[in-house]
From TrEMBL:
Lineage, top ranks: Bacteria, Bacillati, Cyanobacteriota, Cyanophyceae, Nostocales
Keyword Transmembrane attached: yes
Coiled-coil segments on the chain, per record: none
Pfam families per UniProt: DUF1361
Identification of the protein by name: DUF1361 domain-containing protein
InterPro entries: DUF1361 (IPR009793)
Domain of life: Bacteria
Keywords per UniProt: Membrane, Transmembrane, Transmembrane helix
Organism: Anabaena sphaerica FACHB-251
Membrane-spanning parts: 22-41, 48-65, 85-114, 126-145, 175-193
Keyword Zinc listed: no
Amino acid sequence: MKAELIEVIAKVTHLLQINIRWMTWNLFLAFIPLALSVWLFRTQRGRSWVWWLGFLVFYAFLPNAPYLLTDVIHLIDDIRNIQSVWMITLVLLPVYLVVILAGFEAYVVSLINLGHYLHRIGKSKWILSIELITHALNAIGIYWGRFLRFNSWDFITQPDAILTRGVEELLGKQPLVIIAITFVILCGLYWLMKRVTLGFVNKDINSQPNHSHIHDHGS
């Protein structure tokens, strides 16, 4: 029993050492659009060419945040390797849950910041439409990243490949089904997480004196 436990712990430790590399990298990529959203949408700055360049980079890197949802396939592989209910429940699941939620929360907050900006410039009625368009674009980006192995910087390094192979792939029946399912998942999870996030923010604001309530605009 002791030998088996030591073997399981050794396996878990080895997996975590491997996973920490790609988890850290994926989270870094996920937080790039979050940082850009703060710079673009939460600061008072004009829409210069630098702003528009940052906006394009923001949208190019944004799929990296919800992309972490697809890393559940690594969790499935790890569960098969570990085969210990306690280690899976107490170690693997919490680690994956924190990483995946952190990535998706970066996506949610990025779009909340975008919605805040649209409200500030008097375009509140655009928020829902832009959110839906963003979900659709990110569903495509997730498919490109997971199945075609494209990266955000491929828009610069190999735009021809994205315009040819990437677009061609979208015309197939299976890719369209996968993208549609991803779109529905993004819409549902975003709606839920946005409510939770704004609920925490409003609760924190309301607990402080002399602060007005932050209203949610859009979906």
